[in-house]
Specification:
The protein is an alpha+beta fold. The protein is built from seven helices and six strands; from the N terminus they run αβββαααββαβαα. The chain has a four-stranded antiparallel beta sheet, with no helix packed on it. Strand 4 and strand 5 form a beta hairpin. The two termini are 12 Å apart.
Length: 226
């Protein structure tokens, strides 16, 4: 499932930009909420979704590192069909390099959508899901609810694993994804979370049990979002 609407809008803009830095990214701004110091920017790597995925991790929001990886790849792949570019951007940039290493150590496969599909910055810094919480920002709440509807439609066979308590809380607060399709307990893979391996070990038995129950123990054909 590939939605090229925003890519079609912003690819010509990216084509005119020699490089992406925080000083040059203004043309990619999508919307803002000045009272909260929030700004949303376009990045190509979240527009491709695999409807055959069975297990989908959900994060908070991509950051500038993913945005730049995605931008550089789009520039490199100029001339290829949109869907090919978006799929490659997703594979390469869905996590930043350090986040990818951490999640690979926690799970066999590492792709995921996010509550907020495009990079959001608060006062120029990566938005982390706190200060403000998504539910306290009208802009972020609207983005999140729209994204969750899209995720639910895009992954009709999947169960959803929130990465950390903040995502778990927002999924349940929104009520868009049925509770029986949410498997809780997976730690946030960021290196900042120094307890992630202990948290995973403590919760792994319950996670595996829930996955087995929800997927009907169909391990043979289970496929993660890739």
């Amino acid at each position: 499932m590939t939605d090229c609407t925003n890519f079609d809008r912003y690819r010509p803009v990216m084509d005119t930009m020699p490089e992406l830095t925080k000083d040059t990214m203004a043309p990619l701004k999508m919307q803002s909420e000045p009272a909260m110091g929030l700004e949303e920017y376009y990045a190509a790597h979240t527009d491709y979704m695999d409807p055959e995925a069975r297990v989908v991790f959900i994060g908070i929001c991509p950051g500038f590192e993913q945005m730049k990886l995605s931008f550089d790849l789009v520039k490199e792949l100029q001339g290829l069909p949109d869907e090919d570019v978006l799929r490659q951007a997703k594979i390469q940039a869905r996590f930043g390099r350090s986040m990818r290493r951490n999640l690979i150590e926690l799970a066999d496969r590492t792709e995921l959508p996010a509550l907020l599909p495009y990079p959001v910055f608060r006062n120029g810094k990566n938005y982390t899901g706190h200060a403000p919480k998504i539910s306290r920002s009208p802009m972020l709440t609207q983005i999140c609810d729209r994204q969750l509807q899209k995720i639910l439609a895009a992954y009709p066979k999947a169960v959803f694993i929130p990465l950390g308590k903040s995502v778990d809380e927002q999924l349940r607060l929104s009520g868009v994804i049925p509770a029986e399709r949410i498997v809780s307990g997976f730690p946030h893979p960021s290196g900042v979370n120094g307890h992630r391996f202990r948290q995973l070990e403590e919760n792994l038995e319950a996670i595996n049990r829930r996955l087995g129950e929800t997927l009907g123990n169909t391990k043979g054909d289970k496929k993660q979002d890739a």
